Each structure stands twice: as C-alpha cells, then as structure tokens.
Amino acid sequence: MSGVELAVRLDRDGFALDLELSVADGEVLAVLGPNGAGKSTLLGVLSGLLRPDHGRLTVDGRTLLDTRTGEFVPPFRRGVGLLAQEPLLFPHLSALANVAFGPRAQGVPRAEADERARALLAAVGVEQLAGRRPAQLSGGQQQRVALARALAPRPGLLLLDEPLAALDVDATPAMRSLLRRVIADGGQTALLVTHDALDALVLADRVVVLEAGGIVEQGPAREVLARPRSAFSARIAGLDLVPGTADGAGLRTADGVELHGQAIEVAIGEPAVAVFPPAAVSVHALRPEGSPRNVFRVRVAALEPRGDTVRLRAGAVDGGPDWVDGLAADVTPAAVAELGVEPGHELWFAVKAAEVAVHGRLG
C-alpha cells in the first residue's frame, strides 16, 4: 500500500501519544495543535528518533516500524526527509554539495547526484547560487536550498516542521508558494506541522488537530478551518468557539447556558460546538435589551490592536462560566474609547443567533 499508515502508542513522563493516521500517496497532511499536543513526538516517531511502546508504521508499503515483530528501521535508512524551521545546512559545503549529499549517501554516483541537485536548485529558484556556501546566502535562500536537499533523496515521506516560522515577513509568501508548487509538481507525500492557518489552507489537502496526544478533529483543510470543532483550530482560524451539547435551540453548555444558533448536520444530544466570528460580537457596558439572543458577561483580559480594529479578549468573571475565557470581540478604537475599556473591566458580549453556527465535534 502506498502512502503512510501509522498506528502508535507512546508513553513518556506522564504524556501519551495514542493515535492512528493515514496519508495518501501524494497527499499533504497538516498537523495542528497547541504546545504539548504531541506534534513533535509524532515527528520523532515518523523520523525514527523516538521508539514507541506499541505501533506500526509503513511508508510506500515498506514497514519501518512494527513493535510486534521488533522491526525498527533507523532514521538514516527510512527514506524520510525533513525540512525544519532552521535550514541546518552543512556550513563547509556549497549549495550544490549540500543538495547532492543525500543521493551520494544512498550510493548514487557523483555525476548523477550533482545533476539531480542542479535540477532541484533550479526548481526552487536558486540554481545561480549553486557554488555558494550557506554563510553567503540569505535566510530565504538557505531555506530554498534546504528544501532541495530534503527532496534530493526522493523520500517516501517529507516532514515539514514549521518550515516558514523562521523566515522574515518578506520571504514567507514566496517560500509558501514555492513549497506548494514543488510539492504538487513532484506528487510528494508530506506531513506539515504548523501553527499558521494560512500554511494549512495553501499547502495542505487535509488537516488533523491534536490535543493531549490524540486526534480531536480532522478533515479537509478548508472545512476544518471554516467549521472548527476544537478550541485550538477555532483560535487559529480567528473564530470564537463554545463547547456543549446540541439541543433544539442550538447548543447547551455544560453549566446549562443555552446559546441560540443554526445547527449544521448535528443531532440533538450530540457533542457540539457553537462557532461565531469576533466581528459578530457587540460589546456593551450594560446588559443589552432587544434582538441579541446570546448575551454573556465577561471580564476584559487583554486588548489587542489589529489595524483598524481592536480585539477584546475575554476572561471569566468570578462565579461565571469558564467557557467565556478566551472569547474575542472585534470593535473599533472609537468604541474602546467610548466604553473606557481597560483590562479587568467587566462588560457584556452579545451575538445574534443568525451569526452562530453549531457543528458536531468528536467526543
């Protein structure tokens, strides 16, 4: 079977990674999740740097790990490439020699390895820099060479560990577009770890969200980010999310508060989340009357300037529901001034039922 098949259980110092995932041949899977969710542990298992307690891993039909039989292929023989945040190029080698290193280590003759390296340097747009050493390259140029080097051994799986995180704002869009083109053109199977929603939307076919070592959400990238079912995916998608159970009006939280909204493919009684954009939240000094169906009291935790708007980040009030913690409302600077908002102030958030979508969630 081509592609990647993984079922793994690993326990380390009170943390457990326990999941199953598949990556189809030529598919790019984005892995999202908060710090401590298990993303780095997953990369360690796939690369061979970590041995799980139980599990099996195949890449392109080749078994790299099977704890039942004791089979374990070491990292240097796995055929798994890595592009990390830092290029990690060999400082004493030219760009060409860096890219040719992988094929040469596989036993490819020098002339063939150099030819492959030149073709890849051309594909990433730095063929004219083949003779330069890393110290003579910019950060963006180094990352392009690092991408070529990761692809040169023709890996069955390419691991992308936040490859754009260390680039400056000017180099990031070009590198993102390059990754998309090179990976798509080569039909490369890849797993991308990122905290950036735009990376997932542009580069990935599918998204998996990890929390506490397990998968809490998965699906097509655009669907997951448009209809988040976990707090983390809602946050990176720029949406507010409230967990609860679907009911006739929309959603009921664990403490019995009812949020009115539009249920989307979710049955009454199922675990669900209510999702709405911060721009749909109105902010009031006094409890509002009239049309808003969903009104809740919050304490202002932070003010975050965002161009023409200010994002008010909420915290729970004493004795109030804890699910308001982290919710956001986008308001104008004039509204902030009029309300005299400062961290610690108590306000009312309100959102109309028509702005709230209720989706099912795992668990």
How would the blueprint of this fold be written?
Elements: E1 4-12, E2 15-23, E3 28-32, H1 39-47, E4 54-59, E5 62-66, E6 71-72, E7 80-83, H2 95-105, H3 110-123, H4 139-151, E8 157-161, H5 172-186, E9 190-193, H6 197-203, E10 206-211, E11 214-220, H7 221-226, H8 231-236, E12 240-246, E13 250-252, E14 258-260, E15 262-264, E16 271-276, E17 282-284, E18 294-306, E19 309-315, E20 328-331, H9 333-339, E21 346-351, E22 357-360
Parallel strand pairs: 3-9, 3-10, 7-8, 8-9, 15-22
Antiparallel strand pairs: 1-2, 1-4, 4-5, 5-6, 10-11, 12-13, 12-16, 13-14, 16-22, 17-21, 18-19, 18-21, 19-20
Describe the protein's architecture and organization.
It is a single chain. The chain has helices at 39-47, 95-105, 110-123, 139-151, 172-186, 197-203, 221-226, 231-236, 333-339, and strands at residues 4-12, 15-23, 28-32, 54-59, 62-66, 71-72, 80-83, 157-161, 190-193, 206-211, 214-220, 240-246, 250-252, 258-260, 262-264, 271-276, 282-284, 294-306, 309-315, 328-331, 346-351, 357-360. It has 9 helices and 22 strands. Helix 2 (95-105) runs parallel beside helix 4 (139-151). The strands form 4 sheets. It has a 6-stranded mixed sheet. With 363 residues, it is α+β, with helices and mostly antiparallel strands. It has 2 domains: 4-223, 3-Layer(aba) Sandwich (Rossmann fold); 238-363, OB fold (Dihydrolipoamide Acetyltransferase, E2P). A hairpin with a 2-residue loop joins strand 10 (206-211) and strand 11. Its EC number is 3.6.3.31. Keywords: ATP-binding, Cell membrane, Hydrolase, Ion transport, Iron, Iron transport, Membrane, Molybdenum, Nucleotide-binding, Transport.
